[in-house]
Amino acid sequence: MKDPNSYPTVVSLFDRFNRARDIGANYYGCAIDQITFGSLIKGLCIKKRIGDAAKLFDKMPPMGCSPNLIMYNTLIDGLCRNGDTKLGLQLCEEMAREGGSCKPNVVTYNSLINGLCKEANVTMAMKVFEEMIAKRVIPNVLTYNTLIDGFCKSGDLVGAFKLLDEMTAKRIVTNVVTYNTLISGQCKVGDMDKAFELFNKMIRLGLVQEGIKPDQHTYSILISGYCKNEQISEAMDILAEMQKQGVKPHIVTYSILLDTFFKKQRLNDVKHILSRMANEGIPLDEISRSILIEGVANWKGDENLNEFVKSIDVIKGST
């Protein structure tokens, strides 16, 4: 796999290429082929210089070089990630007209669906999904996970679960992302019973299926949901279960709990979480440090809290 650090060099080559007086078919006497164009387009997309990538893409045919499927998909993905899904859709239509080896594939459609879901245009994403199926391009787990996420974020959990049922009917294997997304959707609407039911389903499925066992993110989503729903005891039960299952909490998990305990003025719990972080060697990040500073500043109880915080190794290791 190409080292991402090499892409600044690729971008530098593009700048030199673009400044050259003679853009013809050669660059400093060297022929420009598909590999060169492909590397430049990919590098520019990674650096979020999507406009330059699109201009270079358009220069290919006049220079006697036709874009291939990978180049189309690279540019479409770059456009969709940059919020220009409309142009991505136009490129997809161009691919369909071209036909041959450049027909849109699952990668093309996944990029478009992802872009549309990020723009909260789930209706259009479903139209692209239906077009994909009509053209006999088989959706994969990423296609469904992206759509499920779009439905959950738009508050349409019924639509999200219909997609889950469709995956089961089509024997498309679900994974941890599928269930994490659905659990997150249930937490956002405050249905913690359904969220916990899905969590238990993951545990059962994890006994017979790889790639679906609850991970750090699963536990953090549940803990956050319980905290927001003011079910602190249940949140701590999930933390205990996390430890029991050998899943190590990360800084996100502890930040959620710290924020909750500071807001609830629960001194002993604040101390407990900070001590656990120190014992487990988990340093503060920018978010947890901000929670800590704000929490101490707004503390209305124990005057010794500030001294306690200063004494914790996790704080010393983060300065």
Instruction: Please summarize the sheet with the most strands.
Output: 2 strands, antiparallel
The strand line-up of the biggest sheet is 1-2
Helix content: 55-70%
Q: What distance separates the N and C termini? A: 35 Å
Secondary-structure-derived class: mainly alpha
Count of beta strands? 2
Q: Low-confidence segments, ≥5 residues, pLDDT <50?
A: 20-25
| Average pLDDT rating | 86
Overall 3D geometry?
globular
How is this structure best described in words?
By secondary structure, this protein is mainly α. It has helices spanning 7-19, 34-46, 50-59, 69-81, 85-98, 106-118, 122-134, 141-153, 157-169, 176-188, 192-206, 216-228, 232-244, 251-263, 267-279, 286-297, 305-311, 313-316; strands at residues 26-27, 30-31. The chain has a two-stranded antiparallel sheet. Helix 8 (141-153) packs parallel to helix 10 and helix 12 packs antiparallel against helix 13 (232-244). The model is unreliable at 20-25 (pLDDT under 50).
Strands, helices and their partners?
Layout: H1 7-19, E1 26-27, E2 30-31, H2 34-46, H3 50-59, H4 69-81, H5 85-98, H6 106-118, H7 122-134, H8 141-153, H9 157-169, H10 176-188, H11 192-206, H12 216-228, H13 232-244, H14 251-263, H15 267-279, H16 286-297, H17 305-311, H18 313-316
Antiparallel strand pairs: 1-2
Helix pairs in contact: 1-2, 2-3, 2-4, 3-4, 4-5, 4-6, 5-6, 6-7, 6-8, 7-8, 8-9, 8-10, 9-10, 10-11, 10-12, 11-12, 12-13, 12-14, 14-15, 14-16
